[in-house]
């Protein structure tokens, strides 16, 4: 095949258009053929693995649509050289850029019908829609296919979140151009940068921004909260807690509060709607002021334990022994936990005065 690029203008915006010219004609390949092609290449192992992962995602989607086994699927459009170059090229690009996380806006899929190897298909194509299950999509006034199975497989293999633009420090911007001229710019924009640190130093205090989500629940099995907390923390929540409240008609209930970074809002919201009985939630921004702290190891007559020491205006103001260490020493020695806790706390205060 031959590969070349050119600069084009779409709605006044300059973008790079890449062309793949196949010298072999149109060839149908199955997954084992593509595995062999990629396996014989001299690409780095991580590029090969991720490329094959994307083709496997495609194969599973196609197999489900056609009601057959993945090894029996013959790739038509995606088995062609240009589709292989699209997928492997995307993987190489993200690998060479050193991208660690990928975020995307909701996917604009287009509308109407598209001509494929199996005939006319609705937009989005069945394989595209299958691959985008669980992903926010939308369709507006643009006629045609804006999201292909190849593109859907790539974006779902990489993206952690689909939603608002995350808070990042922008470093580079690139535009890739499609061939069709649409009523909107036919461009894919890639913005590369570092996630903005939501915490800043101000007079020795860390100041950060986050979101608080609240839901009132009066009809949920209490046994489910343990699993809910686990899911929320796995989803990126910074803090989760419940409080007893009294609702209308004097019904006892709980107020569930979750604090989360901005870029985790979509995931936390999904978990709350899926794992609780709530039918609505409240979201509002918060500002956090956090004292700097250190974790120190304290040697006591019972053994060593870690202590969290917070500082205000250069001096220690709060000393908190780590609970897990205190519990471990209480079990080892048979001493009351409260005595262990106080002993470690007092020893920590003495050590801090001596060393500072």
Chain-averaged pLDDT: 88
Shape: elongated
Rg over alpha carbons: 27 Å
Determine the N-to-C terminus distance.
69 Å
The number of distinct β-strands equals: 22
Q: Hey, roughly how much beta strand do the residues contain?
A: 35-45%
Helix-strand category: alpha+beta
Number of folding domains? 3
Notes on the structure:
- It is a single chain.
- Strands 15, 16, 17, 18 and 19 form a 5-stranded antiparallel sheet that branches. A 3-stranded antiparallel sheet has the order 20-21-22. A two-stranded antiparallel ribbon has the order 1-2.
- The chain is α+β, with helices and mostly antiparallel strands.
- A hairpin with a 2-residue loop joins β1 (2-10) and β2.
- It has 3 domains: 2-165, no CATH class; 217-281, Transcriptional regulatory protein pf0864 domain like (Alpha-Beta Plaits), CATH 3.30.70; 293-355, Ubiquitin-like (UB roll) (Roll).
- The chain has 9 helices and 22 strands.
- The mean pLDDT is 88.
- The longest helix is centred in the first third of the chain and has 22 residues, at 45-66.
- It is elongated, with a radius of gyration of 27 Å.
- It has helices spanning 31-40, 45-66, 81-97, 126-131, 149-158, 225-234, 265-275, 323-333, 337-355; strands at residues 2-10, 13-21, 29-30, 74-75, 102-104, 107-108, 110-111, 113-116, 119-122, 137-138, 144-145, 159-162, 168-177, 187-195, 199-202, 205-217, 239-246, 252-260, 282-290, 293-300, 303-312, 315-321.
